[in-house]
Amino acid sequence: MARSKSSGRWLMEHVNDPYVKQAQVDGYRSRASYKLLGINEKDKLIKSGMLVVDLGSAPGGWSQVASKLVAPNGRVIASDILPMDSLADVEFIQGDFTEESVFQQILDAIGEEPVDVVISDMAPNISGVASADQAASMYLVELALDMARSVLKKNGAFVAKVFQGEGYEEFIKDIRESFTSVVVRKPEASRARSREIFVVAKGFKS
C-alpha cells in the first residue's frame, strides 16, 4: 500500500531527526528521553536517591533517564497498559493504573517510601478527530494528576505532557491549587509544530 504524503513526511522527518539519531547513539529507547533530560536540566526535579513513579512509561525512554538520575540509591516504579521490556533498576507494573488492582500494585511497590516525583509522558491513541483527541489527552493528564495527589510526599514534584486546547486552562488552574510553583516548558527535543507542552509543578501541598 502506498504511503500517504503526510506519513511520508513524518518518516523523512523521523529518519533525519537529530534526537532520533542521538537516541540510537546514547542507547535510549526513544527521542522522548531528551525531553525529560531538558526539563530536568532546567528544573532539577530528579536527583540521586529519589523515588520516581513513571506513568505511561512504555517504551521506557523516560524511565531510562529517571533511573540514571536517581542512581545509585534511588528507585523508579513504572506503569503502562502496554508491555515494556525490562530495564535495570526499574520496577515495571503492566496495566491500567486507574484500575484498583493495578493502583494497589503500584502502592505495594512504593511501600512506606515517600514518592518524590511523578512523571507522565502519556498520550492517547490518535483518532484524527481533533476535539476527541484533545478530550482524551486531557482525561489522561487529569488521571495522572489524581495519581500524583495520591502518592506524592509534601513538596514533591509532578511533570506531565499536556496538549494545548480545550480544557488546558482549567487544568492549569486546577494544578495550581495543589502545588506552590507551576511552570510550562517546551523542551528543545519537542518538535516545534507539536502542540505538546510539559507542565512542571513543584512544592506539593500534601
UniProtKB/TrEMBL annotation:
<keyword id="KW-0963">Cytoplasm</keyword>
<comment type="similarity">
    <text>Belongs to the class I-like SAM-binding methyltransferase superfamily. RNA methyltransferase RlmE family.</text>
</comment>
<dbReference type="InterPro" id="IPR029063">
    <property type="entry name" value="SAM-dependent_MTases_sf"/>
</dbReference>
<feature type="binding site">
    <location>
        <position position="80"/>
    </location>
    <ligand>
        <name>S-adenosyl-L-methionine</name>
    </ligand>
</feature>
<dbReference type="GO" id="GO:0005737">
    <property type="term" value="C:cytoplasm"/>
</dbReference>
<feature type="binding site">
    <location>
        <position position="60"/>
    </location>
    <ligand>
        <name>S-adenosyl-L-methionine</name>
    </ligand>
</feature>
<dbReference type="InterPro" id="IPR015507">
    <property type="entry name" value="rRNA-MeTfrase_E"/>
</dbReference>
<dbReference type="GO" id="GO:0008650">
    <property type="term" value="F:rRNA (uridine-2'-O-)-methyltransferase activity"/>
</dbReference>
<comment type="function">
    <text>Specifically methylates the uridine in position 2552 of 23S rRNA at the 2'-O position of the ribose in the fully assembled 50S ribosomal subunit.</text>
</comment>
<dbReference type="InterPro" id="IPR002877">
    <property type="entry name" value="RNA_MeTrfase_FtsJ_dom"/>
</dbReference>
<keyword id="KW-0949">S-adenosyl-L-methionine</keyword>
<feature type="domain" description="Ribosomal RNA methyltransferase FtsJ">
    <location>
        <begin position="28"/>
        <end position="204"/>
    </location>
</feature>
<feature type="binding site">
    <location>
        <position position="121"/>
    </location>
    <ligand>
        <name>S-adenosyl-L-methionine</name>
    </ligand>
</feature>
<keyword id="KW-0698">rRNA processing</keyword>
<feature type="active site" description="Proton acceptor">
    <location>
        <position position="161"/>
    </location>
</feature>
<feature type="binding site">
    <location>
        <position position="96"/>
    </location>
    <ligand>
        <name>S-adenosyl-L-methionine</name>
    </ligand>
</feature>
<feature type="binding site">
    <location>
        <position position="62"/>
    </location>
    <ligand>
        <name>S-adenosyl-L-methionine</name>
    </ligand>
</feature>
<keyword id="KW-0808">Transferase</keyword>
<dbReference type="Pfam" id="PF01728">
    <property type="entry name" value="FtsJ"/>
</dbReference>
<protein>
    <recommendedName>
        <fullName>Ribosomal RNA large subunit methyltransferase E</fullName>
        <ecNumber>2.1.1.166</ecNumber>
    </recommendedName>
</protein>
<dbReference type="InterPro" id="IPR050082">
    <property type="entry name" value="RNA_methyltr_RlmE"/>
</dbReference>
<keyword id="KW-0489">Methyltransferase</keyword>
